Amino acid sequence: MIRRISILLVVCIGLYAKTSAQKKTISQRVDSLLRLMTLEEKVGQLNQYSGRQVTGPVSQVKTNLLNDIKNGWVGSMLNVKGVKDTREIQEAALQSRLKIPLLFSLDVIHGYKTVFPIPLAEAASWDLEAMQQTAHIAAKEAAAAGIHWTFAPMVDVARDPRWGRVMEGAGEDTYLGSLIAAARVKGFQGKQLGNTDAIMACAKHFAAYGASMAGRDYNAVDLSDQALWETYLPPFKSAVDAGVATFMNSFNTLNGIPATGNAYLQRDILKGKWNYQGFVVSDWGSIGEMIPWGYAKDDADAAQKAMQAGSDMDMESRAYKGHLVKLVKEGKVAEALVDDAVRRILYKKFEMGLFDNPFKFSDYKREAKVLNDPKHKTVAREAGRKSIVLLKNEAELLPFTKSKSKIALIGPLVKAKRDLNGSWTVNADTNQIVSLYEGMKNKFGKKTELLYAQGAEVEGESRAGFDEAVKIANQSDVVVMALGETWDMSGEAKSKTNIHITGQQEALFKAVKATGKPVVVVLMAGRPLIFNEIVAKADAILYAWWLGDEAGNAIADVLSGDYNPSGKLPITFPRSEGQIPLSYNYYNTGRPIKDPENIIYKSAYIDSPNSPMYAFGYGLSYTSFNYSDITLSADKLNASDSVAVSFKLTNSGKYAGEEVVQLYIKDEVASVVRPMKELKDFKKVFLKAGESKTLNFTVSKEKLSFYNSKLEWVAEPGDFEIMIGTASDNIKFSKKITLQ
Ligand code: GLC
Questions:
Q1: How far is the CA of 313 from the centre of ligand 1 (A)?
Q2: How many CA atoms lie within 13 A of 428 on its CB side?
Q3: What ligand 1 atom has the least distance to the C-alpha of 107?
Q4: How far does CA 429 lie from the centroid of its chain?
């Protein structure tokens, strides 16, 4: 036995020595390279250019850019993709004096060649493994096409659907968003950076961009430190803990200081308190944008402020290239800061293996093979199905189990393809997208006659198509309408004051509904929309977001009952824009509404309920779930132990299906006012019809903790409400426990 232990010990010491030697090898290699670099070459590593003009025919821009690359003035390129172009540009970089390879980056937000559901749609699946899987496939495909680094996941908590970028994130909740951030980082980065099925991820936009004033892009953010730490920072910390390779800062100011020039964010928190070892890239031009913000007087001033604040790499503002050498020579910026930034960037290039083989990700054979792997479509279809949220299903109209002889497909998005990919697709082939029409044909085409009419445009006031739509509705057994947004109505630079469904779409719905036929409305959009007439009168409603390549098949799988919808909303759907910002974790106020009939002098509107149209965590199923037999292991706990919560979940309906059971807590009295509820755990459970399962949650002090006014992470003794629900506004159990 002793002999075995000693052998084990020798092996472990050997392994440790090797690993630490390997680790030391990268750091040593970085330092020895740094010693060879001129100040100009160091600054060169801090520049990132967009390659939009570099690919394609020779142009003056391309010539100048290639010259800069050959002279070592560029450390990274974005918007260059594909083995051919990345090889050509990497060859230029290897003509520089020290032959330092470039990093190639791209916005691979929800797929490279295979397009998956938009991130907000995937968040509605509450399926962390599925999200990790799609991110990993996106990484495999991008890595096969010469890409080393994606600008994803976007981890901004967002509670304002006027902001078009809600489509890119994980919705309104910090806890769910933190878990999704980690899942996506692990998906993109795989087992180890340097493997050719993994790319560097990027946690963005640091920080609190989702709280942009008035839901408007590029705007100011004013937050208390308590709100910053409690709501907006945790998903970034979760990304750090998951090993995220890079960060991207954000266009917004935080409490008066642009994030790009914000040392509190980038140095005190990220590189200080969190001891982050990766590097920070500025968002597009944000260093230079400190001039219009009125925070820098010119590019030199902006460069100085950004470098001092911890922005390591300059995306496209060229402030570093133009001024950093001089600023260091004038003693205005310490060269040590430049060295630290360069070290961080070089470390990643070594870690990715680019010095050993600058072309390891630019392999023609692998590109052809990986980008056409049919298995990726299967995963896209699965992810699509899981992302669909069933909002309404009167009289169990759905699923269409009984064969319908005639289904009328009506609406401007029935045959849409490009729209189903959303606005962040970088290499998709529109022809590969399965439209709803095609999906329905694949599913129902053999035994059902499909009638089609566009009826109206997504935007535009014409009703010329109504008659045809009404005509085919009258000829059908049931109508399926596809309404919503085109791909360019949500995303970056798509802030809106009015998020009602556009044009004559709702009027078209009313005209079709007036025929008396049962109507299923499938809504396809990047953000929560307002569609109150449809809510009131449709027989069934599916929220299908933008589901990517397999959208049509995924929706048909749900309509046919081949998949029982399991999605739950990751973001609140308001009744009107006037309610925004609106989220489930609201405060009770000193004058809560007790009786909806008596709201005078209460925290209320005189023209609308406070409640949303659809709440966070809401989503129906074709089956029903019964919650029973809740037990708690104790009704008191002290700081060191925990309470076990268990209950029985039964599938009491006739279809197998999945339920997302949600655990919320409320701190009854605390030194900082606490929300009415906070999501602290969830489980997604599959049950066959009639099957029951006992489910367990553990409530520990950690789940009862929050940031107090001194920014200490504390759990204060007192009473807490433990709630188990099927939605944030549909609580099945509520039990009190006391923290002693
Ligand atoms: C954009 C976005 C950012 C993106 C970057 C590169 O402005 O804000 O999310 O990664 O520029 O395209």
A1: 14
A2: 28
A3: 10
A4: 22
CB of residue 204 inside a 6 A radius of ligand 1: yes
- CATH number belonging to domain 625-739: 2.60.40.10
Q: Which of 316, 315, 289 is CA-nearest to residue 305?
A: 289
Instruction: With CA atoms as reference, report the closest residue to 141 among 168, 117, 108.
Output: 108
Find out whether 483 and 521 touch, Cβ atoms under 8 Å.
Answer: yes
pLDDT tens column, 503-560 = 999 999 999 999 999 999 999 999 999 999 999 999 999 999 999 999 999 999 999 9
In angstroms, the CA 224 to CA 232 distance is: 11
Q: Is the CB of 217 under 6 A from ligand 1?
A: no
Residue 2 has what pLDDT? 59
What residue type is 79 in one-letter code?
Answer: N
Residue nearest to atom 1 of ligand 1 (CA): 284
Q: How far apart, in whole angstroms, are the C-alpha atoms of residue 224 and residue 218?
A: 19
Judge contact between 216 and 273, C-beta under 8 A: no
For 205, phi then psi, to 5°, come to -105, 120
**Pocket of ligand 1 contains residue 283 by CB under 6 Å:** yes
Whether 492 lines ligand 1, by a CB cut-off of 6 Å, is yes
Question: Exposure string (b/e) for 643-652, b if CB count within 10 Å is 16 or more?
Answer: bebebebbbb
d(CA 581, CA 112): 33
Check if the beta carbon of residue 182 is closer than 8 Å to that of residue 241.
yes
Report yes or no on whether pTM surpasses 0.90.
Answer: yes
Please indicate whether residue 107, judged by its CB atom, sits closer than 6 Å to ligand 1. yes
Q: What is the DSSP letter of 602?
A: S
SS3 state at 7: helix
Q: pLDDT category, 1, cuts 50, 70, 90?
A: low
| pLDDT at res. 405 | 87
Query: What is the longest distance spanned by two Cα atoms in the chain?
Result: 88
In this predicted model, what pLDDT tens digit does every residue of 104-131 receive, in sequence order? Answer: 999 999 999 999 999 999 999 999 999 9
The reported pLDDT for the residue numbered 120 is: 98
Give distance in angstroms: CA of 139 to centre of ligand 1. 18
Catalytic (active-site) positions = 283
Q: In angstroms, what is the span from residue 106 Cα to ligand 1's centroid? A: 9
Q: How far apart are CA 388 and CA 564, in angstroms?
A: 10
Could you give the CA distance from residue 557 to residue 504 in angstroms, rounded to a whole number? 28
CB distance 151 to ligand 1 below 6 Å? yes
Cis omega before residue 205 (within 30°)?
A: yes
Q: State how far the Cα of 180 lies from the Cα of 120, in Å rounded to an integer.
A: 10
The stretch 325-339 carries a mean pLDDT of 98
Query: Cα separation of 373 and 144, whole Å?
Result: 12
**H/E/C letters for each residue in 542-601?**
EECCCCHHHHHHHHHHHHHCCCCCCCCCCCCECCCHHHCCCCCCCCCCCCCCCECCECCC
d(CA 387, CA 440): 18
Fold of 380-577: Rossmann fold (3.40.50)
Distance from C-alpha of 683 to C-alpha of 84, rounded to nearest angstrom: 45
Q: Which neighbouring-strand residues pair with 595? A: 598
Tokens coding 604? 């209320």
List, in order, residues 6 or more apart from 298 with CB less than 8 Å away. 291
CA–CA distance, 432 with 113 (Å, rounded to integer): 10
Residue closest by Cα to atom 10 of ligand 1: 151
CA nearest to 109, candidates 100, 121, 101: 121
pLDDT range class, residue 353, cuts 50, 70, 90 = very high
**CA nearest ligand 1 atom 7, residue:** 284
User: For the chain, how big is the Rg over CA atoms in Å?
Assistant: 27
Please tell me the residue having the least CA distance from ligand 1 atom 8. Answer: 283
Please say whether the beta carbons of 117 and 434 come within 8 A. Answer: no
For the chain, what are the domain ranges?
380-577, 625-739
Is the per-residue pLDDT at 252 higher than 80? yes
For ligand 1, the distance from its centroid to the CA atom of residue 283, given in whole angstroms, is: 6
